[in-house]
Protein 1
Amino acid sequence: MSVPAAAPPVVGFCFDPHTKHYTGMQPVLKGWCARLRWAGKVLHSDFFHTAAAQPVYLECADNYQDMRERFAARLPRFRPAVGLPAEAVVTCVIDRGIFSHEVFAKTLEAPDQHLITWEKNFRAGPWDPKQGSGQYTLERTRHDAQDQRVYRFEYLDQDWAKNPQMRQLIVRATHPQQHTVEVGLLTDDRQRAAPEILYLMFNRWTQENDFKVRHEVVRVIV
């Protein structure tokens, strides 16, 4: 699948690694396997998905490189493979496994990419609405048009104290059953509107353990 030539100058994709127990005969390196709850032969399947959850690119690897190293190697091959224009700026939404000050530094230096991820080891603190606050609502249509859920979000938009070059979004997300969690998001993208950043993250077709999000169709209610 290729991206049309008329694609916008800034495009968003989810980088989604899946690790499965490998049962073949090849000399595959061992790693942590959730299925076994122990170390064993594992195969990493690294997908790129569109923001609408359509898979467009896949590479497989063993445990020789960790996810950060694999992502750095995948991205240059991914861009031409899906027909992205040379001038396109790619925003990648990735889970907290990418979290690294070294990765953030390289992303800040790259003119053709942005990163959105969870803040690892985030701890909730004082909520100051003066620090660039906002709110929006998501309606999720699940298995049919009548099966809808409403999710409510409040957020603070500010510089990240640990690296002011990075942008931090502190989010209070409320489930339809009124369960609320507070999480932190990090990005180097200073131009994208905060609700769009939250949309890209919470619309991921897998996970997230913090909010129990599953693959559903999402639209923003303005």
Protein 2
Amino acid sequence: MIDFDLVLFDDATARSWMPFTLTRPAGELLFGALRTRERAERIVDAACIGHVTHSDLIGFDEPAAPPVINLSALPISRARLFLSSRAILDWDVDLDFEDSTTLFVGDQVVGWLVVEGAPAPDEAMLLNPHENGGDTLTVPGKVLEYPWDLIHQNGEQILDDVAYLIDEVYSHDVEDDGVFVIGDHPVVRKADVIIEPGVVFDATEGPIWLDDGVTVRAFSRIAGPMYVGRNTTLLGGPYAASSIGPNCKVHGELEESIILGYSNKAHDGFLGHAYLGMWVNLGAMTTNSDLKNNYSNIRMWTPRGEVDTRQMKLGALVGDHVKTAIGTSLNTGTVIGAGSNVFGGMPPKYLPPFSWGADAEYAFDKFMECASVAMQRRGVPLNASQRDMLARAWQRGRERQ
């Protein structure tokens, strides 16, 4: 069997996953109980040495995440597995490579094993993956097509992840005074979790995973399948079938949503079938609609034009570093570009990146000042490489307006 390094790549479809891929590679999106990169590393048993995506993302820098790398700078002294960031392989996949191999999920090419000394696939092949000769291997899994697939398949992914990962946890008993557990799925409690009296865990439909350092305040009702990431605080309210990344504060009603990390929804308001990026702050009573009054399919903006999502329920896609004012209302299928400051009631269904309100541009120096303060409050510095990457994102955002 060949030892190899893992490289995740964003093809043309993944690079269009706005508003998220303006400021991060698709492999650094939370899905289920892990980021897609973290899951891929565990499944293929190899560390990811970097992401290959739009060159403007070089300089991406987040704790524990590999960098965005230049394709031409990749060493050829070891074998490399190039894997699509949209490919979600099954946990029990068996990768036993003997030579250069094209990897399939179903009828879609999702990557290649490139042996030591062989050149990497070129940019054209990464944008449009196709077979390039040699061996082929078809493995079980799925390929995500749109960013809202992350939302609608999230509950099923939590079930799969917890079923595999639960063996890593020595104890998953919740026996705190005044805390009630109903249902037969496990409630996983990792280190230093604090659960106040008056909390209900409903594990009827799926497991609930509380990662290290989670705090659950009184009057919270948590229904699985649910993943709550490290050092997150649930401040009270009904939470159902969601994934919340590390270091978040969440209050009010949350249903079938994903919050990537370091984001706050600390006040009342409904968030349903939505995805929030990192460093998002929702002002008090910010609420999204996820169901149209006539129950018809929800249409959503994409860089390639408006798409019928074929979904009856879909809330908002909110990019990194977005802030909303108190009382903000988001319509079904709203897309808010990264770095936007949203105020004035109900914004349009699409706000370009770095918007100031509904019809102005957020000055870059003012945006950077706000982003730096928000990150420092959580003890995370905004370093020079991240500043440069955000500057390029701001320029690309202007081009999209």
Protein 3
Amino acid sequence: MGVAHLANRPVAEMSSGEAKRTLIARALVHEPQTLLFDEPGNALDLAGQVELRNEMLELARVGLGIVLVTHHVSEIIPGMERVVLLQRGHVAADGPKEQVLTSEQLSSLFGVPVRLFRDDGYFYVHA
């Protein structure tokens, strides 16, 4: 995870990106089969968000299961196959990513017109 140089630095003195990578590295020490990411891009600048997506993508490529909770469609990495959309605590849609992530589904979920774009396996929205 590229955090060895942070070994002696308190987490409170790290940037948000450094702290997130440190937490991921700490979890990986236990050789989990799956990691849960809850709103991982919060508090990260654009470069940090891209870096985090790339790290999640690499973890998925080596066979680690990724469960992602997010409000940001662009955080959904290409290797993710299933998407569950929740609305007020209830499942609004569940299934293969390409079937669930549609402009119609997202417009209904968020209550605003949403245009969905796909680029290099990633999805992006414009409201």
Protein 4
Amino acid sequence: MKPFAKTLISLSLAGAAGTLMAAPAPGERISFVSCPVVRDTTTVPCWLSNYEGESYYLTIQSDVSASVQPPLLGHQVLVEGIVTDDPAICGGIVLEDVHLTAMPELDANCNTMLPVDERYVIDFHPRPPGPSAGRLAFAANPGTPAAAPPPVPEPVGPQEFDIYYDFDKGVSFRHPRYLSEILRTAEKLQPSRMVVTGVRGAHLLSNGTLLEESENTGRRRAEEVAGLLQDAGLDVDSDVSWIDARDDADGIDDWQSRRVTVTLIP
């Protein structure tokens, strides 16, 4: 059984035996694994998740251009964020600096869809009909073309880039822009060497459970990124390595441990 599967089992058993805790105060970091819930509204669906007797607002339903990707029904979601005292959205406590990951394993219990409730109105424009062409569901001006990538400053000395990942996942649709930035910088820097380091992340949940990514995740990520950059024309000597961040997990921005670091050396 994979490490994250073992962790989720122990998490479920601990939750069944424990008692409900007081709601966290504003400013407190919180992280948990739970089933997501989608609630329809008169504008755009919103996503929630329940933990320790409280409901938390996660995000709205949006397309792949959104900075926070919504979870998936049929999968538990890893929620990482900071509690705020903002007015509730969709009946849920609002989190800031939120990071969501749909867990890999299927969970048939995660299938709750709530009907429209007139009390909840999302203050965003609804998704326009038809394909969104990569726009956010709440784009203020759907006819506005996508902005050009920002110019790459003239690089001086070694250049380091961090690429962050969803839990136990590899490269996804949101990573090409980061890889493109590396390639654009390499065109100007003309590096002689590239160092790629993949990290197998770990996350300390609010209830003290340590959630670990699968073995060899760091290696898979590092080799995948190095291969993609080389295939795209970055033909330099490459040092590829990987590490395990298990001992560094403290529940504070643990999402940053799920990464690949690329360093271009002149």
